[in-house]
């Protein structure tokens, strides 16, 4: 009969009495997670967000104007 105390002896228990450590509780040993504040997150993001390349922006602007010119050219060709 089990009384919550445990076995007094291993005799008659069907085991050799060797006690092993239960490794299923290893997850309890994880370090505590240190969450960042909103200010720290904004500061980290500002370090990683790069300014856009001005040459690329200029190219897109010129490309947009070129497309507008081609559309106008097609419209004028249709009119004759």
From TrEMBL:
Record's GO cellular component terms: spliceosomal complex
Domain (CWF21): residue spans on this chain: 57-80
Coiled-coil ranges (or none): none
Record localization: Nucleus
Keywords: mRNA processing, mRNA splicing, Nucleus, Spliceosome
GO biological process: mRNA processing; RNA splicing
Signal peptide: none
Family: Belongs to the CWC21 family.
Protein's UniProt name: Cwf21 domain containing protein
Source organism per UniProt: Euroglyphus maynei
High-level lineage: Eukaryota, Metazoa, Ecdysozoa, Arthropoda, Chelicerata
